[in-house]
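Input:
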Amino acid sequence: MIKPASRWPHLAVSELWHYRELLATLVWRDVVVRYKQTFLGIAWALLVPAFTAAVYVVVFGKFANFPSGGTPYVSLVIAGVLPMQYFASSLTSSSMSLAANLPLVTKVYFPRTLLPLAAVIVPLVDFIVGLPVLIGLMWRDGAWPSAPTVVFAPLFLGLAVLTALGTGLLLSAVNVRYRDVRYVIPVFLQVLPLLSGVMYAVEEIPTKWQWILAFNPMTAVIAGWRWAVLDASAPDPAQTAVGFAVGVVLFVVGLAVFRASEPRFADTI
Amino acid sequence: MPVAIDAQGLSKKYQLGEQQAAYGTLRESLSHAVKRLTRQEHPHGKDEIWALRDVSFEVPEGEVLGIIGRNGAGKSTLLKVLTRIVSPTAGRAEIRGRVASLLEVGTGFHPELTGRENIYLNGSILGMKRREIRRNLPAIAEFSGVEKFLDTPVKRYSSGMYVRLAFSVAAHLEPEILLVDEVLAVGDAEFQARCLGRMEDMGATGRTVLFVSHQMQAVSQLCDRTILLDDGQIMRDGPSEEIVAHYLQTTAGAGASRTWPDSTEAPGDDLVRLRSVRVVDEDGTTSDYADVRRSIGVELAFSVVRDGSPVLPKVKLVAGGQIVFNAMDTDPRWHEPSPPGDYVATAWIPGNLLNEGLISVDVAVCSIDSPKLHHHVSVHEALSFHVQDPAEGDSSRGTFTGQWRGVVRPLLEWTCERG
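Output:
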């Protein structure tokens, strides 16, 4: 059935389900292609967060003496770097997903939402491969989660996925029209770790600032993730709720913008 | 018979400005917005183009439907709407069955992946289930003839191997509905022939086929029914031969024959009157079409009414607004004043001279009055015909199937020495 496209921000779940094999194929393609013709291959998924964390530990931990709130600083940083790396790479690839798959968009029909969706799933592989770094450090520092909280870890990761998908839907649609997006994202991603508490414990800064940072869903992701896996002090529930709410709003807005511009993708891309 | 495609009132609007500034920068858009605000430009001042306007038709299952029309008539837009690549501005269409189109060949191939991996990727993009691909993999590999290189990244393939692999994936798609846009079909002659062959097979096995083409012969041969689009609207819908004939007469100029039964209204003066003109092939039958390799005649039938000055028939061929040539019958018989009576003169244009396309013919009967020509009869665009190349490899383009430019297209004799 072909009709004028609906502008309503619907997800069309049944259609996505129908195309699940294509989603799997697109994810598989990006995972396979990601480390082709690299010498170290998938090891980069371990090395990148490890290097980043090392730099943060030296610069912010040793020289700037950022507060860690009782958690071993190295574990604190790596527990922040992993979700942040995931978010950064999801956001970048999902924002570029439509433009990068131009021949598909102009020649074949499938739900366009599959492209940003696949793009936020692919970096999960890197995330999982990077986990041993975190587990190794936790083992060294003896910072193990107390049993019940760890079950909440996927919830906070889920918020990161939702936020990345929402922003990715929004920016990929904008990027069809304005390739400026490509230049904005790196700038944004350079500032984001500072605003998300990657290299410090958010509860150690003045409450007023905590509330401002609470509007960034990644703050809730990182604080919650540390609480779940590192047994760090629990994040403020109200601030966490704000983070989740913003994540959901971002997702709905992203989907709405995506649906509104979807009918013109093939014409303007 | 069950309906495969049911389109109701399909319309597609494009905004001209939008297409031109396909992707501008944000800054350009802002500066346009500012200009609009300051100069109070009308926001709806942009030109709108309706690529499709209220297009409705039904295709029963198993029918081979042709879609013809001039460039920009909306043929490709219609296919894009039916494949859901673009969504219509208004109207709806219901499609029963899996749709595949031969313009998607090789879409989504990733150069870093191996041939085998690309079969999975491409097949799944075209809508095959993984199970189906696994089952068809040996057949696809064999058909493509690149079995040995299945585990080589396709970036190391030659372009021929690449196209063959891509086509064999598409050929094993087994859709219920196949869309073919000949204009967009790429590749060598063999590949195009395979596309056409595949289409014929599909039609023969009861699949529904939509065929967009400029080759009228192919359309009337392959299609049961044809839709003529013009300016985004359906002008005619009916049996292929009828629609093709109508299209050629209306959009293709004057047509291949013209008669003036009433001599008082026929073009001419008190000395010469034209009776009829037509384009004939080697067998003497009227023909809209000329095979590029064969000669074609322009026949002028006229009457000399009284004794007077010597007259001679003349033709002028025009293609794409350019004069291809002027030709006069210079035979000595026209040196003497022609006795009154009926004459039929035919100018034979040799094969392998004219290029493909629409040729329009001006005819005249004149006498030489140097440095001037005195026209007794002169009819602008009296006739027209199409020159076509069946692409069998023996015309001057050889096996090349792309656009072959030029006013004329002679088959030259080439010499070659190896030093």
